[in-house]
Amino acid sequence: MGGFKLGRVFGITIRIDWSWLFIFLLIVWDLATMFAQVHPAWTTWLSWLIGVVAALLFFGSVLAHELAHSLVARAQGVPVRSITLFLFGGVSNIQREPPSPLDEFLITIVGPLTSIVFGFVFIWLSGVAIGPLDAIVASPFTLVGRLDPVTTLLLWLGPINILVGLFNLIPGFPLDGGRILRSILWAITHDLRRATHGASLVGQGIAWLMIGIGVAMIFGVRVPFFGTGFISGLWLAFIGWFLNSAAAQSYQQVVVEDILAGVPVSQLMRMNPLAVPAAISIGDLVQNYMMGTDDQSFPVMSGGQFVGIITVDDVRKVPHQQWAATTVEQIMTPADKMAEVTPDENAAEALRELTQREAAQLPVVRNGQMIGMLRRRDIVRWVQLHSGPSLG
């Protein structure tokens, strides 16, 4: 997973994706330039300092938006593993779909409401600092130029938070507005898959509209509300492309989970997978085990006990000259550092664990004994065989 861990809030891991650094620096640069123009009396370092603080507070508001989603989800019994800030804002890593349309509506609506409430609070605080309304109406540009740094921050944070809240209410799945639409369709059809398909189609339609508007702006067309310009048009088209991809992927994810619903791991796992001794060399592993099968991973046994897994990728990291002197035990992933599943566990849950850990396989364990191996490729094959023409 790209990026780094920032910390934990209410037991939820907060992560920063590397793409966030790009958008953070872009916002800081844009704000510093704007503040320098609006406040010519400010020094350059002050404009940049307020730009950094404003960007940090903005992403703090985005984090609050996602925390609102996550806390309500946990209150509804839906586990949340982490929140990630990235290029397009933030995303809550909610582990499974909400149990009902009402739960989805409540989990979703609280995010935009949080942003909008934050926005009005910031605007109110800036209004208290500015003073009477007639002074603003009489000479707004002169007044803004005289504002102190704190009031300037509040005046910028208010509208931008309201804009974030309203933008998320656009019914483009998987934006919050699209999820609200899905909750309504779900309540009407009583079918999550059909509801997701409908919301996804609306989301893709809105995404293509955004792409079209963005392209028009790139070629100099002035679009009401959006304006014109190469950079603005390119950014809008890029957001539309991302939304289109996310809508399609979100629907496919629901289809996969629908197919795997009720399927136990025992039905998909490989029984008695080919195991290798921990003490043999990498050379022996390659010659006597890997060359005779297309398996990409092997359980490692020592004294009749499962002690780890070794994969083809592990072997590739060892120089060929060291194969004879390196044992399997030295480069394997130990069992105590691996996730595991039980044979009775739901295959959809197991797939989420595989995806979260970016793993290709998981050991299947019963009463402390490994009885099989669940591979991502076997899950994919099962989904392909049972999806019919609707998947993709």
- Helix content range: 55-70%
Q: What distance separates the N and C termini?
A: 25 Å
Q: Number of DSSP helices? A: 15
According to DSSP, the number of beta strands is 11
Uncertain regions: pLDDT < 50 for 5+ in a row?
133-141
Residues in β-strands, percent? 5-15%
Tally the structural domains: 3
- Bulk shape: globular
Radius of gyration: 26 Å
The ordered string of helix (H) and strand (E) elements is: EEHHEEHHHHHHHHEEHEEHHEHEEH
Structural class: alpha+beta
Strand order, largest beta sheet: 1-2-3-4
How would you describe what is shown here?
It is a single chain. With 392 residues, the chain is an alpha+beta fold. The chain has three domains: 4-169, no CATH class; 189-261; 265-390, CBS-domain, CATH 3.10.580.10. The chain is built from 15 helices and eleven strands. It has helices at 18-38, 44-75, 101-130, 133-138, 140-145, 149-168, 176-189, 192-218, 230-260, 265-268, 282-288, 312-316, 328-331, 347-357, 376-387, and strands at 4-9, 12-16, 80-86, 89-94, 270-271, 276-277, 297-302, 305-311, 333-334, 361-366, 369-375. A four-stranded mixed beta sheet has the order 1-2-3-4. A hairpin with a 2-residue loop joins strand 7 (297-302) and strand 8 (305-311). The longest helix is centred in the first third of the chain and has 32 residues, at 44-75. It is globular, with a radius of gyration of 26 Å. Residues 133-141 have low confidence and may be disordered.
